[in-house]
Design brief:
Layout (H helix, E strand, L loop, with lengths): L12 H8 L15 H11 E4 L3 H5 L15 H6 L3 H18 L5 E4 L5 H4 L30 E4 L7 H8 L7 H13 L10 E5 L2 H12 L7
Parallel strand pairs: 1-4, 2-3, 3-4
Length: 223
C-alpha cells in the first residue's frame, strides 16, 4: 500500500493516472488535523481578494456582452493579446496595486513567455535578493512567506492534448479543480501560509470565482 499526502486530489493528473490504470484508492483525512472548514474560515478573514479594473472586466466579455471564460488563458495571450492590450493591462495592475492593495512586498506570475510584456512599476525588482516573479506552478518554496501582495494574471487549463488523450479511455480531467489546485498552491507561497493578511489581484473572473466558491464551500466527508 502507499499513502499519498495531497490536496484537491480530484483535479490532479495523479488521479487520472490511477483511473487510467484502474488502480483502487480511498480518501482519509487525519483526525489530528484542523478541519478544512476551520482552515477556510481563517483564510476568508485574512485573504483580501481585489477585483480588477473595468478595463480588465471588459476584456472578459464579447461584443454581445457574453462572458468569455478563456480570457487570460495561454491561448488568449498567444492569439488575442497585443501591445496595446498589454500596455493597458500593465497600467491597470499598477493602479490596483497602488490604490487597493497593501504596502508590503509583492510577488506575481504570468505565462513565462509574456513576463516582459507585463512587468510594471512596483512589482518587478528583486526584494533582498528574492525575485518577485514566480512561475505559476511553483511549489514547496518558503521564500515568499513575507510577501503580502499577490498578482495572479493567468487563467489555468490542463493541456488540451492530454485531456483529449485521456478522454479516449473514458478518463476525465476536472478542469476547474485542476485550475483551483494550482492557484491555491501558488497563493500559499505568500504570507497567507502563516495566516497573515494578504491581498490578491486575480485578473480572470473564472479563476476568482473558483477561489471564492471554494472558500465558501463545505468539503465532502473523507472516509
Amino acid at each position: 500500500s502507499c499513502t499519498v499526502l495531497t490536496y484537491l486530489f480530484e483535479g490532479s493528473l495523479m488521479k487520472c493516472w490511477f483511473d487510467l490504470n484502474q488502480m483502487e484508492y480511498s480518501y482519509f483525512y487525519p483526525s489530528t488535523l484542523r478541519s478544512e472548514q476551520e482552515i477556510k474560515a481563517i483564510i476568508r478573514n485574512k485573504l483580501h481578494i481585489v477585483k480588477p479594473s473595468k478595463y480588465i472586466q471588459d476584456l472578459q466579455v464579447d461584443q454581445r456582452g457574453m462572458p468569455t471564460p478563456n480570457t487570460f488563458s495561454s491561448n488568449w495571450y498567444k492569439l488575442t493579446a497585443n501591445e496595446d492590450i498589454f500596455k493597458r493591462m500593465k497600467s491597470s495592475i499598477v493602479s490596483q496595486l497602488q490604490e487597493n492593495m497593501g504596502k508590503g512586498k509583492t510577488f506575481w506570475t504570468t505565462f513565462k513567455k509574456f513576463k516582459s510584456k507585463l512587468e510594471g512599476k512596483g512589482y518587478t525588482r528583486a526584494v533582498k535578493g528574492v525575485e518577485p516573479f514566480v512561475p505559476k506552478n511553483m511549489r514547496a518554496s518558503n521564500e515568499y512567506s513575507e510577501f503580502t501582495n499577490c498578482l495572479y494574471t493567468v487563467n489555468v487549463y490542463p493541456d488540451t492534448t492530454l485531456v483529449s488523450h485521456l478522454s479516449q479511455f473514458n478518463v476525465e480531467v476536472n478542469r476547474d479543480v485542476y485550475a483551483l489546485s494550482e492557484m491555491i498552491q501558488f497563493l500559499f507561497r505568500g504570507c497567507i501560509r502563516k495566516h497573515e493578511d494578504m491581498y490578491i489581484l486575480i485578473l480572470s473572473n473564472r479563476m476568482r470565482k473558483l477561489l471564492e466558491n471554494y472558500l465558501l464551500s463545505t468539503p465532502p466527508d473523507c472516509k
